[in-house]
Write a structure and sequence with these properties.
The protein is α/β, with parallel strands linked by helices. The protein folds into 3 domains: 214 residues, NAD(P)-binding Rossmann-like Domain (Rossmann fold, 3-Layer(aba) Sandwich); 81 residues, Orthogonal Bundle (N-(1-d-carboxylethyl)-l-norvaline Dehydrogenase, domain 2); 137 residues, NAD(P)-binding Rossmann-like Domain (Rossmann fold, 3-Layer(aba) Sandwich), CATH 3.40.50. The chain has 15 helices and 14 strands. Strands 3-2-1-4-5-6 form a 6-stranded parallel beta sheet, with helices on both faces. Strands 11-10-9-12-13-14 form a 6-stranded parallel beta sheet, covered by helices on one side. A two-stranded parallel ribbon has the order 7-8. The longest helix is centred in the middle third of the chain and has 32 residues. It is elongated.
Length: 450
C-alpha cells in the first residue's frame, strides 16, 4: 500500500519506518524542513534504539515538506502530529486541525483512502476531524465517498518505540467503516500476525505471539489511549505513596514492590518508587483526562490524587536535601540525569528539570550531566540558568550534594570513589533508587533513596 504519515516525531517516524520495513511504500511529511533534511540523509532526529539502523536499510521510504507531492497516491494517511498541553490542561489541537485542513485542501480522492488519527486526541475529535476533511474535499468538488476514517491510538514508550511498533501488546482500530477496518488490518497484518522477518538490530521478544486486535468505535478507541496511560501513572503514584509510608515505618520498598508484583493480577511493572513520572504522555494525558471530565462536570478524584502525589515527590526530594544542607542558598548541586527516563534524549516535562528549577529558586547552583539529553537541553532550557556539563566528574566538582534524577544504567559504571573526592560533602540523593541494591558502589557517600 501507499502510506503517508503527517508528522515525523516519535509516533510518525517509527510508524513510517516500520511500515516501510514490512513492504509498504511510505512518505513522511513534516513542516520542519531541518528534520526532513536529516531524514533524507537517513539520520533520525530523535534518539531511539534501532531507528538509525532501520532508516539506513534500502526501504521504499521518502520524506518531504510538501504534502501535495505524495497525497494523491495514498491509500492510508496517518495524522501523527503532537497534541501538547495548553496551560489549562486541555490538549492543544492546533496541529491536528492544521493537518486535517491540509488533507482536505490537498486531497482529490479517486480511490478509497483511509485517514487515520494516531495523535492522542480528546473524545470526539476524530469525528470533528472527519467532518472538517469531508467538508473541505466536497467544497472543492471532490468526492468524499472515497473517504474512510479510523482512530488507531499508539502505545509507544520512548526509548523502546521501535520495539513497541514491531511487537505491540495490542492493536486498536476505532471505526464503524468496514473498508477502513479492512485497509488498516491489511496494512498492519504482518505485525499483527507476526509474520515478518525480525530485524537483527532490534531486541525481539523470545516468543512472538499474535498481537491482540480490538475493533471498536472511535470514541472508545480515543478513551483506551487515555485510560491506559493514566492507569500506569496511577500505579507509579500509588507506589510512591506506599514508599513514603514505608519509609516512616521502616519498611523496604524494593521488597514491597517485588512482593506486590509477584501477584499476576498486579504485575511488577510501574511499581518502582522514586521521583515520579514525566515526559510527553503521562502528564499531558492525565491533565487532558481531568479537563475532559471537568467539561462534563464529572469529578475524577483518583486521577487528581495521582497528579498530586506525583508533584509531591519533587517536594519530598527537596526537603530531603534541605534536611542535610539546611539551606540551599549558595550551595552547588550536581544533577545526574536530565531526561525524563533513560534510553531517550527527551527532556520535555522532565521531573529532573523541575527539581533543578526548584533548587535554583532556593538559591542553589545546579550543574547537570546526562548521557543523551544535553544537546536538546541546551536548546530548550538555555535560559533557565542550569549549568550543563559533558563530564560527570566535572559536574560533581565542589558539589555540596549530588542527585541522581534519571535512572541511566551509565551511572552504575561511573567511578563513584573518584567522584566522591571531587565533592565538598558526600551527600548522595538517589531519587530513582538506581543504586539501592548496589550501595557498595557508593560506600563513601551518605546515601539517601526516595
Amino acid at each position: 500500500m501507499h502510506v503517508v504519515t503527517i508528522g515525523t516525531g516519535y509516533v510518525g517516524i517509527n510508524t513510517a519506518a516500520a511500515l516501510a520495513y514490512i513492504g509498504h511504500s511510505v512518505w513522511g511529511v513534516d513542516v520542519d524542513a531541518h528534520k526532513i533534511e536529516m531524514l533524507k540523509s537517513r539520520k533520525a532526529p530523535i534518539s531511539e534504539a534501532g531507528l538509525d539502523a532501520l532508516l539506513r536499510l534500502p526501504l521504499d521510504l521518502s520524506f518531504t515538506t510538501d504534502l501535495a507531492e505524495c497525497i494523491q497516491s495514498a491509500d492510508v494517511i496517518f495524522i501523527a502530529v503532537g497534541t501538547p498541553s495548553l496551560p489549562n490542561g486541555e490538549a492543544n489541537l492546533a496541529y491536528v486541525m492544521s493537518a486535517a485542513e491540509d488533507i482536505g485542501r490537498t486531497l482529490k480522492p479517486d480511490h478509497d483512502v483511509t485517514v487515520v488519527v494516531k495523535s492522542t486526541v480528546p473524545v470526539g475529535v476524530n469525528e470533528m476531524l472527519e467532518r472538517k476533511i469531508r467538508m473541505c474535499v466536497t467544497a472543492d468538488g471532490g468526492n468524499d465517498a472515497y473517504l474512510h476514517f479510523a482512530s488507531n491510538p499508539e502505545f509507544l514508550r520512548e526509548g523502546t518505540a521501535l520495539l513497541d511498533t514491531f511487537y505491540p501488546d495490542r492493536f486498536v482500530i476505532g471505526t464503524k467503516d468496514d473498508i477502513a477496518y479492512a485497509m488498516l488490518y491489511a496494512l498492519f497484518e504482518p505485525i499483527i500476525r507476526q509474520t515478518f522477518e525480525m530485524p537483527d538490530f532490534i531486541d525481539a521478544p523470545s516468543k512472538r505471539p499474535e498481537t491482540q486486535c480490538l475493533r471498536t468505535d472511535q470514541i472508545s478507541a480515543e478513551m483506551i489511549k487515555y485510560a491506559s496511560n493514566v492507569f500506569l501513572a496511577l500505579k507509579i503514584s500509588y507506589a510512591n505513596e506506599i514508599a513514603g509510608l514505608a519509609e516512616k515505618l521502616g519498611g523496604n520498598m524494593a521488597d514491597i514492590s517485588r512482593g506486590m508484583g509477584m501477584d499476576k493480577r498486579i504485575a511488577p511493572y510501574f511499581l518502582q518508587s522514586g521521583l515520579g513520572w514525566g515526559g510527553s504522555c503521562f502528564p499531558k494525558d492525565s491533565l487532558a483526562l481531568l479537563s475532559m471530565a471537568k467539561d462534563y462536570d464529572y469529578e475524577m478524584p483518583i486521577v487528581q490524587a495521582a497528579v498530586d502525589v506525583n508533584e509531591r515527590q519533587k517536594t519530598r526530594l527537596v526537603h530531603k536535601v534541605l534536611e542535610k544542607l539546611y539551606t540551599l542558598a549558595g550551595k552547588r548541586i550536581a544533577l545526574f540525569g536530565l531526561t525524563f527516563k533513560p534510553k531517550t534524549d527527551d527532556v520535555r516535562n522532565s521531573p529532573a528539570v523541575d527539581i533543578a528549577c526548584e533548587l535554583m529558586r532556593r538559591g542553589a547552583v545546579v550543574v547537570a550531566h546526562d548521557p543523551e539529553g544535553l544537546a536538546l537541553a541546551r536548546v530548550i532550557y538555555r535560559d533557565l540558568g542550569i549549568v550543563f556539563c559533558d563530564d560527570p566528574e566535572l559536574a560533581a566538582q565542589d558539589a555540596d550534594a549530588l542527585i541522581i534524577a534519571t535512572e541511566w544504567p551509565f551511572y552504575r559504571s561511573v567511578d563513584w570513589a573518584k567522584i566522591r573526592t571531587f565533592m565538598r560533602t558526600p551527600f548522595l540523593f538517589d531519587a530513582r533508587n538506581l543504586l539501592r541494591d548496589q550501595k557498595e558502589l557508593v560506600s563513601g557517600f551518605e546515601y539517601c533513596g526516595l
